[in-house]
Amino acid sequence: MIKFFRKIRQKTLAENKISKYLMYVTGEIILIVIGILIALQINNWSEQNKKDQEEKILLSGLIQNIDQDIISLKVLKEKDSLYLIANKTLLSAFKNDSIRVNKSFLKLNIINGSFSPSFNPTQTIFNEMKFSGKINYISADSIRNKIQKYYDNSISTLDVLETNEKLIHELSISIGRYLDLNSTFQLILPEHAKIELDEFDNSFFNESITSEKVKEFSDLITTRQVLMVFIDDAYKGLLQEGIKLKQDLTEYLNAK
Predict the structure, then answer these.
(1) Nearby residues of 28 by Cβ (< 8 Å), 6 or more positions away
(2) What ranges do the domains of the chain cover?
(3) Mean pLDDT throughout 196-222?
């Protein structure tokens, strides 16, 4: 098309027809501009298409990461239930003969109450998005804000939980001084590592509930229970938020 205009332009110059020459020059310019605009539009469309595909990949990865968090939190919730039951059982042993004389049951609950499970969120995709700037590939502001809020809440909650878990660990050490840990922890040691000195001693649970030792023990157990309830509630909140975000991301991705 440009060659066609060029021939006409040369002919009009040869014939000294200035007005026609200007008209054809203008036509050439318009054609060039249109061509540039079309090329830019195609390029923009191509770039947007790449971003749309990248957005889908990121969303799929986020959903997988959040799904892993949901699974982990559900497992932790189950372990928390065992932990809370264990603390109650240890205090009940002072009043309940059937619990007090059942040494295996006591040892199991001492173990279940001694460890506070921790949550480590899966942040692989989110961190990639955050540090590369690809979080802006999520075109919907509402979805982007929900993603940011979920991970902000996870991080701030984990900071508080870490403090609580340290306190629980310290309490467990103090609580252990009243219990026969040597025999108790043989349950979780492999055969080649067992070093039991004698049979499990459950005599502490025969103490009077009015004794100072039992009162101190119950205070430690109750404090540990309060901290564990807080952790359990925090896990519950993160679990509900994760389930909701996964649902929102799935619906948004399916609509793309």
Answers:
(1) 2, 5, 6, 9
(2) 52-255
(3) 93
